[in-house]
Write a structure and sequence with these properties.
The model has no long low-confidence stretch (mean pLDDT about 75). Helix content is about 45%, strand content about 10%. With about 110 residues, it is mainly α.
């Protein structure tokens, strides 16, 4: 009988947590399981962080236009990787560039 009572108690606890979830309560102390992880789009796998960024993505992160990112890469200020005819940017390279004070390669 003890097993049944524990099962009932767990079911009631889950029902209470689900009710709190529905009312907008935050799940801070509840471990993340496939049942309670909320993704942006239900039924999808959470998005992965891209290894290489496009000029538009790099520009958005740096608060620059894609054209300015292209210009900075063309003069060698921002390191880029060429794959065929396209340029891609590594996040770590952009972070290092910002930490160095965003040098443009132009002498003052």
């Amino acid at each position: 009988m003890k097993y049944i009572r524990e099962s009932d108690a767990m079911r009631k606890q889950d029902q209470e947590l689900n009710r709190q979830e529905a009312n907008g309560a935050v799940l801070e102390d509840r471990p993340a399981t496939p049942d309670n992880v909320v993704s942006e789009r239900p039924g999808t796998i959470p998005a992965l962080t891209p290894l290489l960024l496009t000029e538009a993505q790099a520009g958005e992160l740096l608060s620059l236009s894609a054209r300015k990112v292209w210009e900075l890469a063309a003069c060698g200020a921002i390191p880029c990787i060429k794959i065929g005819a396209v340029k891609r940017y590594r996040l770590i390279d952009l972070e290092v560039w910002v930490k160095r004070g965003c040098p443009t390669g132009r002498s003052k």
